[in-house]
Structures are given as C-alpha cells and as structure tokens.
Amino acid sequence: MSQCLELDVASQGVTEAEALTNLKEALELYFEPPQATRPPQVRLVEVEVGAA
Question: For the chain, what are the domain ranges?
Fold first, then answer.
C-alpha cells in the first residue's frame, strides 16, 4: 500500500513499484480540474430599484 499523508490519498499494488505507480495516478486524478456534468442554467432576473 502507498499513501500520501498530506492529501489523504492512498493506493495499492502487488509490488511496491506498482503501488507507487498507482499512487501517482491517483494523485494526478486528485489534482485534475473538475468537469461539469451538466451545463449551468443561466437566468435573467429583473429587479426594480427605487422607493417602495
């Protein structure tokens, strides 16, 4: 098992080398920017400003 304690990310492998390779991949995925699963909804809202 391999682990990055600073980020609480861990991985495992049959050998030490495989565990480190898998940890590297896990860290790359951890730092990958998030991608939207659906497009954002944009709405226009009109607000009247003035004395009530």
Answer: 1-32
